[in-house]
Amino acid sequence: MAQAEKEVFHKSTFDNIPQEKRNKILEVATREFAACGFENANINTIAKKAGVSVGSLYKYFDTKSDLFLTTVSFGIDTLEQLLEQVTSNDEDLMIKFEKILRAAIRFSREMDVMIKLYNEFTTESNVELGRQLIDRMEALTARAYKMAIVQGQVAGEVRLDIDPGMAAFLVDNILMSVQFAYSCTYYAERLKIYAGDDIFQKDDFVIENILRFVKAALKPQKYPERIDQI
User: Fold this and answer.
1) Long-range Cβ pairs for the range 30-35 (8 Å, 24+)
2) Which pLDDT belongs to residue 230?
3) φ and ψ at 52, to 5 degrees?
């Protein structure tokens, strides 16, 4: 079955400008929307920091909403590439999950503005602005994690009495919490309360403990053969 063509929110004129210029506009817009929210983000500020005129921006995007949705779509494309690199192999489930976890931490540090934008995009006030994009993003992660868990069940790495969809949902929630903690002030302070002020200098500690938790939840159970083994 052919994959549905993804929706585009910019005009064709945006595709005709140099890649460097497109990236600059998207980078500046992402930072502005992440810092100020959709309602308070200023088109004039975005244009000035991107080195283009306001008139030029409106040659590329019909509305501020279209610019916002284009920046979010760009972030989803980046996530899709990351997941594809990590999950498109036959490695053991926990090796895949460790790679995803390490990539999530690295991405959250280097591209914290993308995570902040996602946090802003999924608030109740903005959720209807781009329902299709939210569905696309959630379907992307759900499909990748669910497939990895099913493959783990086939390989005997994951218990069979757990639903792959629910397991994928719970794994995704762990990853989201980690990404927010490494990029958003509130969630960072929250993690410090639970794990100590120096937790962000202990990446391996964080990764090892999350992996132990997930492995213990997913691994096949070994039931005793006799009552005296309980």
Assistant:
1) 30/71, 30/74, 30/75, 30/113, 30/114, 30/117, 31/113, 33/68, 33/71, 33/117, 33/120, 34/113, 34/114, 34/116, 34/117, 34/119, 34/120, 35/113, 35/116
2) 47
3) -130, 165
Pick from 209, 225, 227: nearest CA to 217: 209
- N-to-C CA span, the chain: 51
For the segment 40-67, the average pLDDT, to the nearest whole number, is 94
Annotated domain spans of the chain: 12-219
The closest alpha carbon to 175, from 106, 125, 113, belongs to: 106
Q: What is the CATH number of domain 12-219?
A: 1.10.357.10
pLDDT of 212 strictly over 80: yes
* Residue percentage of the chain with pLDDT more than 90: 53
pTM for the full predicted model: 0.75
